[in-house]
């Protein structure tokens, strides 16, 4: 009896030691590989200085939930997140000149009623088939209200209970309603600063709108938007779409789920789709679809007046709009986001009004944090910190256009470390990002390009020039990029620039061996 008890105790000790060691290994992995400072891509100037001084959440490590940092887990939990948040809204229907309508849902909380008319406003633009009912919207509005903003969600035509009145539906290319929303709010609250946060499809619309508004596409009326944040934006629908279209992958599952929600949208507004003249030649059979691609090809693009989904994707890409933006904007992207596609590395490192923050984890519109990740997310804090930092420095923001920047575009973390160390960090980050970009490209096989060869060349080239200035890269990232040299030459070869990639690699290796030799 006694002996048996001893045996059991021994076994228990053994198992708890194994579990303890396993947990420590897990914790070690979490702390070293999962929690990382976001990579920032920007052009040095007033905006990056303001972020360094007043937006500390962006320059510290991001800690995803210890037990749920996996991209799919985060994305799924992110969807559930809002269930616990009670929200009350006052709906303002906005009629459009073409006979349609969309809505502004104004958040009603104890802190947002009876606030003065000059209270700054946060306008939230939701994702595909979304609305103010979504957890992401509710959580962002709740946090914004608690920080003294007046939050509202723009609910697109036919979404979230807004009746669809004609065959002009919302899409990534359609910015007229965003323009009208901004005008309407500017008119209603002429003394309030207006800021905006876009999620997913909403951030494409927001980015496109800003590019158009800042380049004089519309007669300006009111002050427009003062600062913006675009979260989990698929910048290039073409590359993102190709990634989602590979059958039997988890990304494909997302595709089917969204397609199902689009189906529900079509079902609810059946009468509009049935009577739409532009869909005359689309047969009943063709109207059955299972994927986003099929919906975009057969229905969406035709309804918008495009020939094909590809034509729609090209028109709707926000990449060409980014260089035109003159409103401070933060793009927040997670490298593990399946909807990501190509990133605007080039565009953001040459426009002083834009800042791209890339985290290694975060999923799609999730960026959760904490052990119980159902409350406020890291993205809510970062977005509102950024908006606050911009709003509280109007004089410095006004300088951006006049700064004569002799500084080269930066790919760097704006951490205040010693120059040598931060130089090395930048090199490492550039190399790691180039390697990740190549991996993303390879994992897509022949499906298409997730990475713009130009930005890859930029990354490697910049790492090389940084190295010649500061000395060295860490061995790990250097090994990583060298082992992907073939993939790099292949990708760059599609633009006839395989040689320049090789030159950058060679010069990297040269300055590395020089720095070790000295
Ligand atoms: C921004 O940073 C500066 C410099 O660190 C500090 O003096 C100032 O109080 C900060 N402003 C806000 C609004 O946090
Ligand atoms: C796509 O958007 C642009 C800019 O807003 C607009 O000029 C163009 O007409 C749109 N294309 C279609 C087919 O709606």
TrEMBL record:
The keyword Transmembrane helix applies. InterPro entries: AB_hydrolase_4_CS, AB_hydrolase_4_sf, AB_hydrolase_fold, Hydrolase_4. GO terms for molecular function: monoacylglycerol lipase activity; short-chain carboxylesterase activity. PROSITE patterns: UPF0017. Residues 120-339 form the Serine aminopeptidase S33 domain. The chain crosses the membrane at residues 12-31. Keywords: Membrane, Transmembrane, Transmembrane helix. Residues 467-493 are annotated as: Disordered. Pfam families: Hydrolase_4. Belongs to the AB hydrolase superfamily. AB hydrolase 4 family. PANTHER family: ABHYDROLASE DOMAIN-CONTAINING PROTEIN, ALPHA_BETA HYDROLASE 1, ISOFORM A. This is Serine aminopeptidase S33 domain-containing protein. It comes from Apatococcus lobatus. The lineage of its organism: Eukaryota, Viridiplantae, Chlorophyta, core chlorophytes, Trebouxiophyceae.
């Amino acid at each position: 009896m006694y002996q048996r008890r001893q045996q059991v105790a021994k076994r228990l000790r053994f198992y708890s030691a194994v579990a303890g060691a396993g947990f420590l290994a897990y914790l070690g992995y979490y702390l070293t590989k999962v929690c990382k400072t976001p990579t920032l891509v920007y052009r040095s100037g007033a905006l990056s200085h303001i972020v360094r001084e007043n937006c500390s959440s962006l320059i510290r490590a991001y800690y995803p939930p210890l037990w749920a940092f996996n991209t799919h887990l985060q994305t799924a939990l992110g969807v559930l997140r809002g269930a616990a948040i009670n929200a009350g809204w006052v709906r303002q229907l906005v009629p459009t000149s073409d006979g349609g309508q969309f809505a502004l849902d104004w958040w009603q909380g104890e802190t947002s009623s009876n606030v003065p008319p000059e209270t700054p406003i946060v306008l939230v633009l939701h994702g595909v088939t979304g609305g103010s009912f979504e957890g992401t919207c509710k959580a962002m509005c709740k946090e914004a209200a608690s920080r003294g903003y007046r939050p509202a969600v723009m609910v697109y035509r036919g979404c979230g209970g807004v009746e669809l009145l004609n065959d002009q539906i919302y899409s990534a290319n359609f910015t007229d309603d965003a323009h009208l929303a901004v005008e309407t709010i500017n008119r209603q609250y002429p003394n309030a600063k207006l800021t905006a946060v876009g999620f997913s499809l909403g951030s494409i619309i927001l980015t496109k709108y800003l590019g158009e508004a800042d380049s004089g596409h519309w007669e300006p009326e009111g002050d427009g938007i003062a600062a913006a944040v675009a979260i989990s934006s698929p910048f290039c629908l073409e590359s993102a779409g190709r990634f989602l279209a590979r059958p039997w992958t988890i990304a494909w599952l997302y595709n089917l789920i969204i397609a199902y929600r689009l189906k529900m949208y079509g079902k609810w507004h059946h009468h509009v789709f049935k009577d739409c003249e532009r869909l005359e030649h689309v047969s009943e059979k063709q109207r059955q679809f299972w994927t986003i691609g099929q919906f975009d090809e057969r229905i969406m693009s035709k309804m918008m007046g495009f020939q094909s989904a590809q034509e729609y994707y090209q028109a709707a890409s926000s990449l060409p709009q980014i260089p035109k933006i003159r409103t401070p904007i933060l793009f927040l992207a997670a490298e593990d986001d399946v909807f990501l596609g190509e990133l605007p590395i080039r565009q953001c490192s040459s426009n002083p009004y834009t800042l791209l923050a890339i985290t290694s984890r975060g999923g799609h519109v999730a960026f959760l944090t904490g052990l119980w990740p159902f409350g406020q997310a890291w993205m809510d804090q970062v977005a509102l910190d950024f908006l606050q930092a911009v709003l509280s420095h109007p004089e410095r923001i006004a300088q951006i256009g006049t700064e004569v920047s002799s500084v080269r575009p930066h790919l760097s973390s704006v951490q205040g470390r010693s120059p040598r160390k931060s130089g090395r960090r930048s090199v490492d980050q550039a190399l790691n990002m180039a390697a990740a970009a190549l991996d993303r490209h390879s994992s897509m096989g022949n499906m298409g390009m997730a990475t713009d060869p130009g930005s890859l060349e930029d990354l490697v080239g910049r790492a090389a020039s940084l190295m010649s200035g500061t000395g060295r890269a860490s061995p790990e990232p250097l090994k990583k990029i060298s082992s992907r040299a073939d993939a790099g030459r292949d990708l760059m070869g599609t633009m006839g620039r395989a040689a320049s990639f090789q030159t950058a690699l060679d010069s990297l290796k040269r300055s590395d061996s020089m720095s070790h030799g000295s």
